[in-house]
Amino acid sequence: MSGPRTLYDKLWDEHLVREGPDGTALLWIDRHLVYEMTSPQAFEGLRLKGRTVRRPDLTLAVVDHIVSTGDRAQGVGDELARLMIGAMQRNAREFGIELFDAFDPRQGIVHVVGPEQGFVLPGLTVVCGDSHTSTHGALGALAFGIGTSEVEHVLATQTLTQRRMRNMRVTVRGRLGPGVGAKDVALHMIAAIGAAGGTGHVIEYAGEAVEALSVEGRMTLCNMSIEAGAKAGMVAPDAKAVDYVEGRRMAPKGAAWQDAVAFWRDLRSDPDARFDREVALEAGEIAPTVTWGTSPEDAVPVTGAVPDPESFASEGKRAAARRSLDYMGLAPGTPMRAIAVDRVFIGSCTNARLEDLREVARVVQGRRVAKGVRAMVVPGSGLVRAQAEAEGIAEVLVAAGFEWRAPGCSMCIGLNEDVLAPGERCASTSNRNFEGRQGRGGRTHLMSPAMAAAAALTGRLTDVRELGGGRPRGRRHARPARKPPP
Amino acid sequence: MERFTTLTGVAAPLLRGNIDTDTIIPQRWCKSVTRTGFGAHLFHDLRFDGAGAERADFVLNRAPWRAAAILVAGANFGCGSSREAAVWALHEFGVRCLIAPSFSDIFARNCVANGVLPVTLDEDRVARLAALAGDPETAALSVDLPAQTIVAGGEQIPFEMDPYVRHRLINGLDEIAVTLTHEPEIAAHERWLGAARRWRLPARG
Ligand code: SF4
Asked: Ligand 1, atom 5: nearest CA belongs to which residue?
């Protein structure tokens, strides 16, 4: 393709194996992340057809979704969990794939582990049988989630059949205010464009506020792209991205590293590239944002109130809002800050990296979890957990009354012991407030780590800016998180 | 892969927007290493109450929709998790075609991989079909993929379809087998990668 190209166009062209006359294309896949929930049937499919894994060296496996976050010496989970974890172990062994199992110090959530190991790099195509694979776009990779049949396809061929998506750019102008971070940008954007606003598109995030985000902040933002319906989200790699990757275990070394850095220098949208859709957001207008309903698009500033369903334009939206409020047990007009919570969950691939935990510790430092609130922190990986312990973060949190758990998806998805009871209300740093997502009948309010920490301290949804302690995020010089030993 | 050519069956209206895959098959029923056993838990928390009894007000618990082969659904159907078990559950229940104003991308791809046809129509048409589906007298629709039409209430409604998806569904193509016919091109890309793009390979150690 000639003429000015977007970042997505460039990644597409770089990975194109062939293009059919009808526009369907075969894309080469550089990295494939695999985990216990969505892969057993794919491996079984290979076996049934006598196929093998084409490039086990480009594949990395973890257990994260179903694994217990308690003391694993007491067991990694219930019978079904053991069945799935056992299948992952067997499949990794049989097909020669590296696996971080429940007792590996590097084990963690697939989207935390991938970048942490240097397995994911700018300029790559990355897939995983999980929708939040969009996270990896933060490094300037084309990363997207796939179903199990496609997992099997990638295992067998290291390619995927794709059709080119449309280009969308979300520009966040200006600087974020104090106490406002990447999660707020994500929720604000989804509220603005809707949970299907990005359907059929790949989003590139740009603008001063995005440039000012650390790589980990960009991961939070890109992670939530799927909640706007987009296939993927990405940020052009800059010096921060290069810095983030350098020296990590699986990142290129020596001459290969030099080639990589040279390649990444041009890996950005051409100045006159055309986007099919442009959205502009003003950073200064973004407040700490929380959800009130059962779709991530149901988000308002924490200073706002639960909307009146009758205020929505279409009957479809009115009906959805009525249903949401019924499920959430909320009355229209209730100030968000008057909503009391029973549980606080700090974790998930959206917000369980080191910076998130540092942010939480800054808010919590010297304070205590409110009486009657059960608050848990589940680090994104074993390495994040170890580093947070080394920095004294764990100590601050435990002293405040938080549970400090073993890494995994935990209450983001409620597949293990970490679930809400019916009617329980939770301030959560995860990404989905769907009915039943955190446990049947559980009520989820999505927010940033700083905001979840604030809710834990007061026992209700709280504007972290009023609490003090949360330092401005957007302006902070974004030093990359300390890297794990190679 | 299972083929899809034509289908006549009962359509059930389910017009809520943003029906996510957690709603289609709650996570706690996804602890499985097989592709089967999900149908009984399709829409579990909508179909059954906390005690496990059927909710009489849910459309798939009522005749004739209990035998639905088609769902007429709201926008952004299948959003959320990429779990293919959502499609396995629909398929096992007997659903072979979904009609909605929009689908999540991953969900629609999962449908096709399992021989289930996702048809996108504008909101008005979907609302009209839902109204027909909601009346037991007119709930049966016919879907013809080769002709790209739906026949409902005596009316013929054309629909758009990606030519590759259409070809794949009509012929029941195993996509992996098709891709493997392009082995020379895949191998060529792989060789180029090893020679000109060494940095794209992971360092191991
Ligand atoms: S943390 Fe939640 S969203 Fe992320 S991969 Fe795990 S289950 Fe999925």
From this structure: A349
